[in-house]
Amino acid sequence: MSIDRRSFLNHSALFTAATTLPARWCRAKDLPVNRKLKMRFAVASDLHYGQANTPFVKIAEEMVGWMNKEKQGKGLDLLFINGDLTHDNPQLLLELRDKHLSKLEVPYYCTKGNHDYLDPKEKSPTESWKKIWGYDANHTVTHKEFAFVLADTSAPAKSNVYRAASREWLKAEFGKYAKAPAIFSLIHIQQRKHKVCGWPQHGVNDVNQVEEGEAVMSLLETTPNVRGVFHGHNHDQTSMWISGDRRYFFDSHVGGSWGAAKGYRIVEIDELNRMVTYQVNAEAGEELNRNDLP
């Protein structure tokens, strides 16, 4: 498969040129401090609830506390938990939901990750994503004119395959919301093969999935109102990557046994639909980076 190297440039190269942002958008650092916000949402991922030798109960409690603090502070409309809620145990999805996520003071939605296994037993309460959460693993949320498209990249239990999302399903959903001021896509696993042209590791890896992943990337990058793509899965990544003028964001991790500082990502949209996002190091209580979503 032929890949254009120029499309894989990361943010450090592209962001140095003022021409990379349309003139109608201010840079994040230039936005008014007291601008009126229309919406504010958070993306967190990779709780890995139930992973051995980790304080997973404490981790879940901390995440709920962080999100409730955001709600009580600057306000928070929605929370998206972008995959790997649990660690290979479907029954723990119910425990996490009922004992911890039920204490959130903000509406939340979950993306299915590669560790979020389901119970193959018929009529089990964890037989399907819909039984647990009330919606399918491929699901779209709408809020204040905006569309949030949550795509399933999970594979059968312990298959060790990092899957591409369904391009057909994504294309149909993008078509439904073609007139929305913005579409945000939440996909647990990055759709570019890992370590290709400077991209981080832990992307799609199976030979049959790489081509499908590139087809998803092409769709994301040719849908005009897709304003941001959010990935979990890679616990080491907290930054932004650019491909085809589309911005891809990682949010580190909340739980698990490895990775960068625990944290989450915030997106703010003001009354003029100017959008910025920044990563929060929740352990230190500080902002790590800030980028536009032009």
Condensed summary:
With about 290 residues, this protein is an alpha/beta fold.
> How widely separated are the two ends?
30 Å
* CATH topological fold name: Purple Acid Phosphatase, chain A, domain 2
Assess the beta-strand content as a share of residues.
15-25%
> What is the overall pLDDT average?
89
Please state the CA-atom Rg, rounded to the nearest Å: 18 Å
Number of strands: 12
Structural class: alpha/beta
Q: Tell me about the largest β-sheet.
A: 6 strands, mixed
Describe the secondary structure blueprint for this structure.
Elements: H1 11-14, E1 37-44, H2 56-72, E2 78-82, H3 91-99, E3 108-111, H4 129-133, E4 139-143, E5 146-151, H5 167-176, E6 183-187, H6 207-222, E7 226-231, E8 240-243, E9 246-250, E10 263-270, E11 275-281, E12 286-292
